[in-house]
Amino acid sequence: MNGAPAESTTSESARAATDGFWRKAERFLKARTLVPVLGPGIITFGEDDSPLYPWVTAQVASRLGLDPVPSSMHELVCAHRRNHGRAEDVCIEIDDLLDTAALEPGPLLRTLASVSQCRLFFTLGFDPLMERALNLLRGGGRPVTKSWRFSLDSVAVDLPNPAASGTLLGYLFGRTSPNPGYLLWDADAIEFVWQLQRQLPALNTLGQTLSENNLLIMGTTFPDWLVRFLLRAIRQRPFTEGSGKNFLLADAEPPSQAAAVLFYDSLGRGIQVLPGDPVAFTREFCRRAHAQEAPLTSGLAPGTNLTIPLMEPVMPDGSIFISYSHAPADAAAAFRIVEKLRAAGCLVWLDDDRLTCGDNFENNLADSVRRHCGFFVSVVSRTTEGRGESYFHKERNWAAERVQSMTHARPFYFPVAIDDTPLPPRQEPRAFAAIDAERAPAGELSEAFVARLAALQQRLLTPRTES
Fold it and tell me: How far is residue 410's CA from residue 279's CA, in Å, rounded to a whole number?
């Protein structure tokens, strides 16, 4: 009996392993227990997704007068030290370069930032581009991302509780500054992993988060031995202890040189190495993540396909709160209102979690309206006018309570009629009876209305200086 050719068997085995990985990844995404860890190999800038770190290396080498251009940041530091330079010189040039170049995150990072199933990210790089991408996609450019860093030049502070932090980005190997303390070259890498190994037992939240979540490490450029050391530190116990499953690290496919993709399965304590281009992998990961997001289609006109806007779970102070009925046509109009306001640079928030999780967030919503929102947009429709009892009435009554402590000159409440509902509305709180409603068929706000609300929010969020 003839067996299958070895090459065919190997190919089928690799295909089965990849398929198995994607099944696990999609399951963990859905359960919101998958944490992306960005390596330098997928950090890009500009609309053509230019790799950041080779560009930084070349720019800094030019500033330091190094010729030829070193092949990596490690080689750059080594070359500069051979010229009797200091690592501090490199830090100063990098900090100035990233501060003055005003680089924008590439489409790859922006797409990754839009994966709504992930609220926690780590980066192995020192650059601010993923933080900018998260703020752009989740806060309209405003700083809604909470950041944390582990550094060699300061006392370690534990990771904030991810469940209470909204979007959180952790700089696992430090963040750029004029002084050393972040990862530049292999000597720093060894020290970072050593310090993590030593300090993780005391950093309870960080240690628990790294060891108990499923980590997807994309685009790492570290040597294989350092990857093993890092994952050993994260696991906080020997590879041989635990479930009995092996860690899968492919020595024949060196992860560092190929900017590998690594997957740490917290349940099996196993590691899978996926060979291939990490940029292409990241795009496929984002495609699959977005495919899980159910677009709003029922009850809308044929061909209409709207995806629920990505929102922070915790409302940033000063946000525009959108109150709406979750009838399909009303929700679609509310999403268009969000798009129009965000395009004008506004910080906007609506309760997207309640679309799928039920009315389980009443205390948080009430607190958001009564204390945190800067402005309240009431989406008025035949649905809101026709229902005598519904959740959106609670939101609007909370807004009515809020204005009792405001001056009458303070613009706060903005009714927006999205269909042919007769005006003035009959079901809006009495406190707002004198406010004229804006007509915005299907949520298409006028440019004048958008500009006015954007200017009001800008004024509210801009710190006042004492004269």
Answer: 49
Residue 360: what pLDDT?
47
Other C-beta atoms closer than 10 Å to the C-beta of 401 total 13
Structure-block tokens of residue 458: 């800008």
Q: Which residues contact 28 (CB under 8 A, 6 or more apart)?
A: 34, 214
- 457 pLDDT exceeds 70? yes
- List the one residue out of 329, 315, 327 whose CA is nearest residue 367: 315
Give the C-alpha separation, 354 to 284, whole Å. Answer: 28
Using a 10 angstrom Cβ sphere, with 0-12 exposed, 13-18 middle and 19 or more buried, the burial of residue 71 is exposed
Judgement on whether residues 218 and 341 belong to the same structural domain of the protein: no
How far apart are alpha carbons 157 and 141 in whole angstroms?
A: 27
163-200 per-position pLDDT tens digit: 777 789 999 999 999 999 999 998 898 899 999 989 98
**258 pLDDT tier (thresholds 50, 70, 90):** very low
Domain assignment of residue 39, yes or no: yes
398, part of any domain: yes
